[in-house]
What we know:
The complex is a heterodimer of chains A (about 110) and B (about 120). By secondary structure, chain A is mainly beta. Chain A has no helices and eleven strands. Chain A is about 0% helix and about 50% strand. In chain A, a hairpin with a 6-residue loop joins strand 4 and strand 5. The radius of gyration of chain A is 13 Å and the shape is globular. The termini of chain A are far apart. With about 120 residues, chain B is an all-beta fold. Chain B has no helices and eleven strands. Chain B has strands at about 5, 10, 20-25, 35-40, 45-50, 55-60, 70-75, 80-85, 90-100, 105-110, 115-120. In chain B, the strands form two sheets. In chain B, strands 2, 4, 5, 6, 9, 10 and 11 form a seven-stranded mixed beta sheet that branches. Chain B has a four-stranded antiparallel beta sheet with strand order 1-3-8-7, with no helix packed on it. Classes of the chains: A mainly beta (about 110), B mainly beta (about 120). The interface between A and B is medium-sized, with 23 and 24 residues.
Amino acid sequence: DILMTQSPSSLSASVGDRVTITCRASQGIGNSLNWYQQKPGQAPKLLIYVVANLQNDVPSRFSGGGSGTEFTLTISSLQPEDFATYYCQQSHSLPRTFGQGTRLEIK
Amino acid sequence: QVQLVQSGAEVKKPGASVKVSCKVSGFSLTEVFIHWVRQAPGKGPEWMGGFDPADGETIYAQTFQGRVTMTEDTSTDTAYIEVSSLRSEDTAVYYCTNADSWAHVYYFDAWGQGTLVTVSP
């Protein structure tokens, strides 16, 4: 199975900050990488698919990048509604696997 | 836009089975590819399986082979997952989700609200 490792596991930041979350795959996955946001008590929500494509209605302050084994999710200017847990997920091979999550908290 | 509505919470004893439903609207069930993902308390999501259009059949994560069955009723546009021989470690929120693709890469773009399954003696 492909292991997806996110860093950091948790992050404290302030409104207006720029933050970057990293996701590393245990083997090359090309561009088969997606990002989700999850708030407490809610289902995950697709943010970015295939590395860098924003899902409908996702604000442009979110961006994704990378290829192969290392990927990033960047939020250019944090807003109050962005404080949540973020997960990366690979679709290169079976089983589909998720990262362990990065919890973004208000400083 | 695909909308997914799941059945309500369940409490089961170890060794029992549970069946969770996922009603599709906005599209016919034959037009979407339903997968199932579960999330144990405080943990990340775990993919369980779903319909693979490339093979035209349902694929299961090895972890759940033989203990999980995914079915569909196209007459009611409802997908189901049944988990048998439940144990405490199966306590989790179970989600159905739609798999879409772009450039041959699959992603999960619509999710049900989740169904909490609690396994307790």
